[in-house]
Amino acid sequence: MMPSLQTKLPGLLLVAVLLLDSCNNNRVSPTDVSDTREVYRPIYSSYEAVRNIQTLAPRSIRQAGKIYIKDGFLFVNEIGSGIHIVDNRNPEKPVKLSFISIPASRELAVKDSILYADNAVDLVALNIADPTNVRLMKRIENAYPITSYPPMRGIRFECPESDKGLVVGWQKSDDKNVNCWR
Amino acid sequence: MKNLSIWFIVLLLAGYGCTDGGLGFKSSNDASASAGAGTGGSTARFTVLGNTLYLVSNTTLRAYDVSNSKNPTPGKETKLGFGVETIFPYRGNLFIGTQTGMQIYDASREGEPRHLSTYAHIMSCDPVVAQGTLAYVTLRNGTPCRAGANVLEIIDVSDLKAPRLLKSFPMQNPHGLGVDGNVLFVCEGDFGLKMFDLNNPTDPKLLQHITDVRSYDVIPSRDVLIVTGKDGIYQYSYANRKELKLLSKLTIEPII
User: Fold this and answer.
1) What is the DSSP string of B29-57?
2) Which of A14, A116, A149, B97 minimizes the number of CB atoms within 10 Å of its CB?
3) Which residues in chain B touch residue A67, judged by CB atoms under 8 angstroms apart?
4) How would you write the pLDDT of chain B (256 residues) with one tens digit per residue?
5) What's the number of CA atoms in the CB half-sphere (13 Å) around residue B166?
6) Is residue B139 exposed (0-12), middle (13-18) or buried (19+ Cβ within 10 Å)?
7) Between chains, do B70 and A154 touch, taking CB under 8 Å as contact?
């Protein structure tokens, strides 16, 4: 026999309360088939994969984000992927030196020869004295709060679950049965 | 003797070349605005002021002691409200752009930011830069910045505890901005890039509007403007204040 709504209700309420708590500024809305808002679902990655920082050969820039300059260097963040280091002593001929792969990074700043970047939920300090051999000096875990929602507004999304890994991005989904929105 | 003096000149030139042209990172001993730190755009969420690295997240300002730059050490956390977007260091203060206004913090005590004031405005996206006693803020509407206006606001911050709006100018869809002496740059997103004369700091006059470069943020420094565009990182010389001269473009590959 199927459980009645009455027996399911306390459980649903509990789930709703938990979701309210975990979804930051996003609230549970009843699933509505007539809802035409776009739906997104999280792209998860393992902590091990995300925390793997590498210096790679210079490569083409894809999705440029924040920029930063220091001492003839130009830094270009590639949204969610890492940082291009450019020799910009001659602005007429900028030369890409390397690409530092920093998964889920968007921000950066430099002091002396140390580059600070977000690496998903962590803050990392990288020694860039040799831009072709960048070395991790320090990792502060969980320094940056998890962004538990997509950057877009007026959309619905599948609520992230932390035990599935880190959310490193969002993609469109056809699943209409989702409980978070913003 | 004649040969000797020529060699002397050659050596002098060679020496000059070495000191000026080397690529490397200068350390905190240099006397700059924030010793040892670089410069970000107006949409930055990380900044170094003195010996402190500040990060803003959606709701919080976090301070890290970086007096030993290799060893950032977590410091104070300050709750800021919500919709925090940008941080701009200015004369020992932090100007923080949020979706509801600009917050000013005194950061003269390392790692201990102290709230001085909040300049509230309508809900929108708003990077901020400052120069002299003025702050320049762009407000833009549209996703993800909700409703709002598309304007450039000039705010008198001579009294940091009581910022007040001086003037507001209509814009098309302003994103990042940058100011350097007598010139102001505003990224208009899909509508291009604008350069304004700022000889009168409260009355920007349009000098040039480049319409074929979709622009999002800029860093002006030493007569070179670096622009993040949709399809490239553009660099212009603004040595001639009347017209930008394209120096180079680093292509950004389209997303397939």
Assistant:
1) TS-STTTTB-EE-TT-SEEEETTEEEEE-
2) A14
3) 40-41, 217, 219, 226, 228, 233
4) 445 555 554 444 444 433 445 778 877 544 445 679 999 999 999 999 999 999 998 889 999 999 999 999 999 999 998 888 899 999 999 999 988 889 999 999 998 999 999 998 766 667 899 999 999 999 887 655 555 689 999 999 999 999 999 999 999 999 999 999 999 999 999 999 999 999 999 999 999 999 999 999 999 999 999 999 999 999 999 999 999 999 999 999 987 6
5) 15
6) buried
7) no
CA A157: distance to chain centroid?
Answer: 15
Q: Which amino acid is at B191?
A: F
Alpha-carbon gap: B24 to the closest alpha carbon of chain A (Å):
7
CA distance B15 to chain A (A): 18
**What tokens were used for B54?**
């500040």
Residue B138 and residue B148 in contact, taking contact as beta carbons nearer than 8 Å: no
Q: First-to-last CA distance in chain B?
A: 67
Best probe of the A interface among B67, B70, B219, B234, by most A CBs < 10 A, is B70
Collect all residues of chain A within an 8 Å Cβ-Cβ radius of residue B146: 153
* Residues of chain B positioned with their CB less than 8 A from the CB of A137: 70-71
> Residue A98 in 3-state DSSP?
strand
Looking at beta carbons, which residues of chain A come within 8 Å of B72? 116, 123, 125, 138, 140
Q: How far apart are CA B157 and CA B138, in angstroms?
A: 16
Mutation for testing the A interface, residue in B68, B219, B234, B250 having most A CBs under 10 Å: B250
Contact, A50 vs A168, CB < 8 A?
A: yes
Which helix (H) or strand (E) segment holds residue A139: the answer is: strand A135-140
- For chain A, helix (H) and strand (E) counts, in that order, are 2, 13
pTM tops 0.90: no
CA B240 to chain centre: 21
B102: left (phi over 0), alpha (psi -120 to 50) or beta: beta
